[in-house]
Amino acid sequence: MFLLDTNVISELRKVRSGRANQNVTRWVRTVAPQRLFLCVMVVHELEIGTMLAERRNPTQGALLRAWLETRVLPDFAGRIFHVDLAITRRSAVLHVPNPRPVRDAIIAATSLVHGLTIVTRNKADFESTRVQILKTPAAPGRSASGSGNTVSLCSRATAAPRQPPLGRTDDIKSATRRRAAHEEGMGGSPA
């Protein structure tokens, strides 16, 4: 399962117009939509970008708002991971001894806690988070090292999430009950 970074979900917005990076387009077509996830920090970054565009250029802002509200949020309903205690604590670990941007740490921690593969176009944001980075092949005739030609995958894709993603507020209670039942059956809380 894959956790999309903000730069990838933003790139996917360009697919219909034919302006998206071809490697990103090619890769996403090979993955079932049910295997693609977001975290609330990515939604946070998309919301900030949309609000800034609305102030700067109302026409462009309206297009981004429509995309966010009618495509991204509905398409990922039930597949958006919320920040919980485990993610918060893992994110804190990623800041010591060298502080990093909080947003990137939350995205990385979400991936690590839930055993997801991060899909990003900027592997430098996640290189020091102890995740292995893989690249998709470059376009024919191009080098795989060019930043515009890579989709980085931070491995850990084989493990299933420890808890279901929360897409709606009403899911919180049921997820909490399932987690408590799981922990009770396991003899305590997970390490």
Structural features:
191 residues, Rossmann fold, 7 helices, 6 strands, globular, disordered C terminus
Summarize the structure.
This protein is an alpha/beta fold and about 190 residues long.
What does this entry look like structurally?
By secondary structure, this protein is an alpha/beta fold. The protein has one domain: Rossmann fold. 46% of the residues lie in helices and 10% in strands. It is built from 7 helices and 6 strands; from the N terminus they run E-H-H-E-H-H-E-H-H-E-E-E-H. Strands 3-2-1-4-6-5 form a 6-stranded mixed β-sheet. Helix 3 packs antiparallel against helix 4. The protein is globular, with a radius of gyration of 17 Å. The C terminus is likely disordered.
Oligomer: single chain
Mean pLDDT: 77
CATH topology: Rossmann fold
Strand content: 5-15%
CATH C-level: Alpha Beta
Listing every helix as H and every strand as E from the N terminus to the C terminus, the arrangement reads EHHEHHEHHEEEH
Q: Order of strands in the sheet with the most strands?
A: 3-2-1-4-6-5
Reconstruct the topology from this structure:
Layout: E1 2-4, H1 6-12, H2 22-28, E2 36-39, H3 40-56, H4 58-75, E3 80-81, H5 85-94, H6 102-114, E4 117-120, E5 133-135, E6 152-154, H7 171-185
Parallel strand pairs: 1-2, 1-4, 2-3
Antiparallel strand pairs: 4-6, 5-6
